[in-house]
What we know:
Layout lengths: L7 E6 L5 H13 L3 E6 L3 H4 L2 H8 L17 H8 L2 E7 L1 H9 L5 H7 L5 E5 L3 H5 L1 H12 L3 E2 L3 E4 L5 E5 L3 H7 L13 E6 L4 E4 L2 E3 L6 H12 L3 E6 L11 E4 L3 H11 L5 E4 L6 E3 L18 E3 L3 H6 L6 E8 L3 H11 L4 E6 L12 E8 L2 E9 H15 L5
Parallel strand pairs: 1-2, 1-3, 3-4, 4-5, 8-11, 8-13, 11-12, 13-16, 16-17
Antiparallel strand pairs: 6-7, 9-10, 14-15, 17-18, 18-19
Helix pairs in contact: 1-3, 1-9, 4-6, 5-8, 10-14
Amino acid sequence: MRSLKNKRILLGVSGGIAAYKSADLVRRLAEHGCDVRVVMTRGAQEFMQPLTFQALSGNPVHTDLLDPKAEAAMGHIELARWADAIVIAPATADVIAKLAAGTADDLLSTLCLATSLPIAVVPAMNQQMWSSPATQDNIERLRHRDVAVWGPGSGSQACGEVGAGRMLEPLEIAERVNDLFNTGSLAGLRVMITAGPTQENIDPVRYLTNHSSGKMGFAVAQAAVEAGAVVTLVTGPVSLETPEGVERVNTTTAQQMLEACEEYADGCDIFIATAAVADYRLAEVNEHKIKKDHEELVITLTKNEDILATIASREEAPFCVGFAAETQNIETYAMGKLQRKKLSMICANRVHGDSNTGFNADSNELHVYWENGKKHYPNMPKTRLARELIQLIAEHQQPDI
Length: 401
């Protein structure tokens, strides 16, 4: 199975005897690289102690809808913003009925109602309860809403009966979590992504650069692979691990990044330019280290060729998505770049020196624009934002791609 490293999984545990298996599920998810937080219903706490899940996950366990320790006492909103996906195991007949009806009378049901995250339920109940027309109607309603239903398995049950209703084994559940991220929305398409900063030499020991960490571009590359694309990631100098399944091309200067992009552009269906490419380079790089002999140092800069505009101007241009980091007038500047560079879509965000979004941060906020349309994504983890963006691109890509 593909690695689940850095995926944030919210595990809902409801009140069934199979709750003991959920402890092993936390361990299995952690082995696959997940960061797990557990939400327990009141019934679940009758079978298992929260301390068990806290010890296994390394995170506090959440049980209360209105948590005084949470921001504004709204723990369900915080958890929904934190997670990448929700898995409910075991999912009792009661919990399934609540989700189907849209009930929000405890933390687990409320946060499921307060999110657009992928949700999977793993049923566990008596075989007669599972086969009940009411339960089957509820299951069909959830499936109609794209809630994944995993299982149940068949066999002997704690009540002494035999039949369908057993919760799947933790190892199988952990392996199925990948299904929540592998959407296939870009299946078979070739995607090229740029990421990180570039460096422009001043002399052998100094260079011009910017604050880009590459985190957004790497997250987009991971999301594109999950969507089924063949991904080439052209990156500037960053210390980030290459996402599994991604072909990485390392570059340093803007000119090197341009040459790499032109080399890999043939046959490319989608080009996503998240890199913060230097607009200028030195007209002449000093051969030796510049000495501090003067109070002022004057250097002459010359403009670099625009990588995104160059790829977008090709005769058979791919679906081009640009990124713009702005400090003011976001929509005006973003729309100007969209039209001037003949892009398919542009993503803009406001950057501040002390902001917890944008450069170097693990979260971001995006304003996305295209011809006659726009969409705003509030501050969220870059990994989740990347999946949202890839889904939007998949919906708007050119018909002939």
